[in-house]
UniProtKB/TrEMBL annotation:
Its main location: plastid. It holds the Pfam family mTERF. GO terms for molecular function: nucleic acid binding. This is Transcription termination factor MTERF4, chloroplastic. Keywords: Chloroplast, Plastid, Transcription, Transcription regulation, Transcription termination, Transit peptide. It is found in: Plastid, Chloroplast. Belongs to the mTERF family. Gene3D superfamilies: Transcription termination factor 3, mitochondrial (1.25.70.10). One of its GO terms (cellular component) is chloroplast. PANTHER family: CGI-12 PROTEIN-RELATED, EXPRESSED PROTEIN.
Amino acid sequence: MSLSVLRRRKPSLSVIANRQAQLFCANPSSVTPSTQNPCPQIPHLQNPFRVLRFHASFSTQPSKFPEYEMPTVTWGVVQGKKEKLVNRVIICDYLKSLGIIPDELESLELPSTVEVMRERVEFLQRLGLTIDDINEYPLMLGCSVRKNMIPVLGYLEKIGISRPKLGEFVKNYPQVLHASVIVELAPVIRLLRGLDVEKEDIGYVLQKYPELLGFKLEGTMSTSVAYLVSIGVSPRDIGPMVTQYPYFLGMRVGTTIKPLVDYLVSLGLPKMIVAKMLEKRASILGYDLEETVKPNVDCLISFGIRREALPFVIAQYPQILGLPLKAKLSSQQYFFNSKLKIDPEGFAQVIEKMPQIVSLNQNVIMKPVEFLLGRAISSSDVAKMVVKCPQLVALRVPLMKNSFYFYKTEMGRPLQELVDFPEYFTYSLESRIKPRYQKLKSKGMRCSLDWFLNCSDQRFEERLQGDYIESVTIGPSFCMGGKLELPGSEILSDEEDESDDEVLYRRTVSL
């Protein structure tokens, strides 16, 4: 009796088969099962070989690289230990036949067939890489074309790196082929956009410094930005700084950025001025402090530049800290002495007022000088004019001709006034000299060139309304320690607003 009970409790195989068939159906309510076949046949499952064709219909959709042949389907191949060793030897022999040294691939899992490895090599060659490039970083051969190369290259093209430049990008930074688009690449791009790097500049930034794609977001990139903002760099200017010089994102604050900033401050530059310099010339951060910056500062002093004038020189021309300065200063000093009859002391004064002269072409310098000499001005007077106003040597001669013609024909003043006030040539003839001279002429006033030119429009109008001509006072100047000293007033105290540094920057610096 117990045996019959067990037989009743044990379900038949046919019942189990019917239940499994019903569960396997995709939509059993939409079909009418028969007694012979409880689940209607799915066409692409009738033949097991049609599964591959069904999958291939999706895997061969047009990609972003239509000229590249998609790799063949090689998954699902099960190999034993012996087969793997044999195939590895075959693949290494194939690579050696191409001139590729496979030594670094010993610990790397290689594909199961030579055909797959051939597809990888040919794919890289179509990108523009040579066998020598592959030998520089053979680990790129461990990247799958389908799983690694195509997704990464497609993303790089999407963010702005043009297809013809992808090969050069991979050559410069082949490690990118190992990266995950979602986990590693996309977060870096989001960070750059968060720093206000323009979308159209992302590709340009990465081509200059592709190693950015390998940085950790919470590491050097964040700390360098935070430090620069702490010393006064505007957060809105971080994006342009990254576009101009992205390498500072990889610099360590404690060993590179901060020591440079501290040294510049020790020379007398206010921190806010240093911040403004970095905003305009982020490449300053790339100057080596011990090998370039400090020797250049010592070089300036050795050529007669006063220590108290160093802040003004650096603020005017920050690039002077990174030049091969000794050679340039030696060449220019000899030129000024031999051609312009300006002694080393006068040359030092010229550099203090216009340090850009160290990089100015000597042919450019001679053109304004020859113009002045051709106007019956003696060489000694021309030398005095250049020392007093070095900007003369950077002016365009046609503009100087127009200003000189107006001075002689309309104003009718002696040449000595030009020698005493060479800054006359630096003012615009149409927007300042002519209109102001006409107002003076209509009022019957006669005054020095300095009095009516070296002031703002508002101050000029106030002077016209005055009953007397007051003496000209000197302008603002640097004071060691970074504060602004105004004529007739005390040095601004530490409690003053930081905008004082902004005033100093606007009045004395033109980067």
